[in-house]
Amino acid sequence: MDNIEKRLICPICLDYCKQAVECYKCINLFCKNCADSLTDKKCALCRESTEFHISNFARRAINELPVQCDYCSTSSTIGNLEAHLEKCKKKTITCQICDLKLTKSGFLDHISSNHLDKALHKAEIFNHILANKSIKTTESLNGALNGIHSIDTKINSKNKKKARLGETGKYYCGEQLDDFCSCCDGFCGTQSGCNCSGCMDLDIRFRLLPKGWLVNRDGFAARKSLQNGIIYCGRKNMIGVPGCDGYCGPNCGPNCSACQKLDEQVKRRYSKLV
Ligand SMILES: [Zn+2]
Ligand SMILES: [Zn+2]
Ligand SMILES: [Zn+2]
Ligand SMILES: [Zn+2]
Ligand SMILES: [Zn+2]
Ligand SMILES: [Zn+2]
Ligand SMILES: [Zn+2]
Ligand SMILES: [Zn+2]
Fold first, then answer.
1. ipTM of the shown complex
2. Are residues 22 and 50 both part of a single domain?
3. CA of 200 to the centre of ligand 5 (A)
4. What is the structure's pLDDT at 152?
5. CA of residue 147 to ligand 7 center, whole Å
6. RING-type domain: which residues (predicted)?
7. In a domain, 212, yes or no
8. What CATH number has the domain bearing residue 38?
9. Residue 201 CA: which ligand is closest?
10. How many domains is the chain partitioned into structurally?
11. If the chain, 274 residues long, is cut into consecutive pieces of 10 residues, what is the mean pLDDT of each piece?
12. Nearest bound ligand to the CA of residue 22
C-alpha cells in the first residue's frame, strides 16, 4: 500500500474513510461518522478543537480504489461495490436468531419457515435487516413473511396524510414536525431524519415493537435502559468514543447521536408513544 492509500485510511476505524472528511487543522482524513463521534470535536490525531470539512478529493480517490467482492470475487471499485452487493448472488447474510449463513434470497424463506414468531417480535432482527443494505426496508421482510408485497404507503392516523418508507426504513409524511427539531429542517422526512409523532406511531406498529420502543432518526429501534433511563439502539457505531466499548448501550455508557436526539424528543414529541 503506498503512502497516498495509507492516508485514505481512517485512524479511528482503520478502514478506508466512509464519506471522507478532513480535519481543518491537520488535514488528516476521517470517516464522517467517526469524526462526528469525537467528543467536543477534538481531532483524534492533532488533538485540537477543529472543524471537519468534506474532502471531495479523498471521496473520489477512495471510490476508485479496486476491491474484490468477498462473496463472489468479482473485481469492482469501492464506489461500485455497494451496487454490486445488491445484485451479488453469492452474498450471504447471517441469521441473527440461529447464526446460520444464508443467501439473500434464502434468508426471508429461512425466517418465515423457522422463526416467524420470533422475527415479528424481535426488534433486533429489524435492526439487523436495516443495517444490512441488501434488504432495504422492513417492508420487504414483512411482505415476504405475509406474502403481501410492497404496500409501502400507510395512513398517518394523526394527520391522516399518506406516509411512505424512506431510506432509513422509517415512515415519513413530509408534513411539518410536531415541534422544533435541532437536527432537521422542520419537516417529516421524506427520505431520512426525524419523523412526526404520527409517523413514529406507524414505525412502532409496523415493526411490531414492544411497548417503550421507538425508532431513532437513523432507522434503528431503540429503547430506554432500565439501568439509567438513557435511550440506546445497541448498534456498534461508536468505535473510538472515549469511555465506550463501541456500542450504543445497550444498557449503559454513552449513546449514539441518533439516540441522543430521541432522549430529547421523547420528552415532548413522542411522549404519548412510550
Ligand atoms: Zn472511520
Ligand atoms: Zn486534526
Ligand atoms: Zn459478489
Ligand atoms: Zn435462523
Ligand atoms: Zn410524518
Ligand atoms: Zn430532527
Ligand atoms: Zn443509538
Ligand atoms: Zn458503549
1. 0.44
2. yes
3. 7
4. 63
5. 32
6. 10-47
7. no
8. 3.30.40.10
9. 5
10. 2
11. 84 94 96 92 93 96 94 94 88 79 76 62 53 47 42 82 86 93 90 95 84 90 91 87 85 92 95 94
12. 2
